[in-house]
Amino acid sequence: MIETEFTPLAASLGGALIGLASVLLMWVRGNVLGATGILAGFMQPSSSADWAWRAAILAGMLTGPFVYLFITGGFPEIQVPVSTLSMIVGGVIVGIGVTYGSGCTSGHGVCGMSRLSPRSFVATISFMAGITLMVFVTRHIFGL
Asked: Which domain holds residue 85?
């Protein structure tokens, strides 16, 4: 059985940083901090200015572990308790959901809900219900 580690301090700090980044991006650029939308726009930018801010955010996401290394002296410990095939299948399923849901958990759950978007409330409830069901099925029915 997979054991989930939860540390309230790390979760609170991470949530605060995500919230701060979301507010700053909306304030400075008027854009929603939706990770998949940022990546999609990076791949097909509408202008060089549009590409630049997306590249900066993606660079920040990629350099995060190195900042952690600099501060703590070691990389964050990441345990992936599933096979590579499971991750690929999960990634494809998430990609399909993001496409049909017109956004991801960061876009709908963090930014959309804070703007009181009814569509984002429905999307986030759907994400959470799907996640709950999938965790229950994989852990308690399939025993993975």
From this structure: 8-141
